[in-house]
Structure formats: C-alpha cells, structure tokens
C-alpha cells in the first residue's frame, strides 16, 4: 500500500519531540488549510538547512562556524560549561547570568540506548581544557540517572588534569513548599545544605 504525502507529513510531524499522532494530524490540517503558511514554513525549513552550521569548537548550532558564543571575546574563556544538548545551552543563555564558554555533548551515556563516550562529544573535552587553559569545568548535565552518570564520567576523565570542577546546584526551588517536593529532590537538598 502506497502512503500519500499527507500521511507522510503526519507521520513526520509525529516524530517531533512532544508530538503524537493526534497533535501531528491537527498541525498537518492547520497547515493544509493555510497554504500560504505551509509554503512559508517549507521555505524557512529549506533556508535553515542551508544556513545552519555545527560549531567545530563547542558543537552549538549557529549560522557561523565557530559560533557567535565561541567567537565572543567578552566571554570568560577560562570557564567551560558542559551541557547535554543545545536546548540546555539555550536555557542557560536565556538566564543571562553565565558568561563563559560551552561544550555540547549531544546526549548522555546510556547502556540501554547504546550511547557510549565515542557516540557523544566527550573525547575532546580533555583537549579543550588543556589547549584553551580552562580553569573551571561546570558539569551542567541533568539530574537524571543518565545525566549523573555522564557527569561522573566526565569528572573522572578530567581528574588527572587538576582542573576545578563544579556542578549546578540542586535542591528546592524558591517558593516551593516542602510538602510538594519529591523525595529525591528533598534528599539532595538536605545533603547539599550550606551555612545559613
């Protein structure tokens, strides 16, 4: 049985993160009902594919290679923040509080998914620390089992270099009530408590 273009469109849209078959159908129907927007989207997708580049230094995406962050001489080149993916980099940038450089891993270590250090952007972290005289590495992987495992792996990898290593603070968000905090977060907050 041959799949028509509408079915292929729905199937492709449903592969996007956070979208299932029902959402994909609604999006596809919305685009079909507004053909001008569909043509505009198609053009933007083609343009993005042609323009986007992966930074050879940090693995961020940008229209230039190296990316604007790596080329910004106002950033602190002695501090390197290791993130799982580009969305994490964008989240940190949105906070406008971090002024160092980045290293995007492209995921986390996972035996179940077959993600090894060789399949991620891990192996060249040592070179970056050495060549660029990095003084501190901030491990900003997520607080998931895979994120924690990846963070520990990177810390072990960099340990012989004697570089300062830190991790993002974890614990109770401001404004939260203890009764609504999950056990893992509460336990971590107690473990990482500091002087008042």
Automatic annotation (TrEMBL):
Residues 78-173 form the Toprim domain. A zinc finger (C4-type) spans 55-70. It comes from Candidatus Bandiella euplotis. The keyword Protein transport does not apply. Keywords: DNA damage, DNA recombination, DNA repair, Metal-binding, Zinc, Zinc-finger. Transmembrane segments: none annotated. InterPro entries: DNA_Rcmb_RecR, Rcmb_RecR, Rcmb_RecR_Znf, TOPRIM_dom, TOPRIM_RecR. It comes from the Bacteria. Belongs to the RecR family. The gene is recR. This is Recombination protein RecR.
């Amino acid at each position: 049985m041959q799949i028509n273009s509408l079915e292929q469109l729905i199937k492709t849209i449903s592969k996007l993160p956070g979208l299932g078959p029902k959402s994909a159908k609604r999006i596809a129907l919305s685009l079909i009902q507004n053909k001008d927007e569909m043509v505009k989207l198609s053009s933007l997708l083609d343009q993005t594919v042609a323009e986007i580049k992966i930074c050879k230094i940090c693995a961020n995406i940008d229209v230039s290679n190296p990316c604007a962050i790596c080329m910004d001489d106002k950033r602190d080149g002695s501090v390197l923040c290791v993130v799982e993916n580009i969305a994490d980099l964008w989240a940190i940038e949105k906070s406008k509080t971090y002024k160092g450089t980045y290293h995007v891993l492209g995921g986390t270590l996972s035996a179940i998914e077959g993600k090894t250090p060789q399949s991620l952007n891990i192996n060249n972290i040592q070179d970056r620390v050495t060549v660029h005289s990095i003084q501190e590495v901030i491990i900003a992987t997520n607080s998931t089992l895979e994120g924690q495992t990846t963070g520990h792996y990177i810390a072990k990898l960099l340990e012989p270099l004697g570089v300062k290593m830190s991790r993002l603070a974890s614990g109770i968000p401001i404004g939260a009530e203890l009764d609504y905090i999950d056990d893992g977060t509460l336990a971590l907050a107690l473990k990482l408590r500091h002087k008042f």
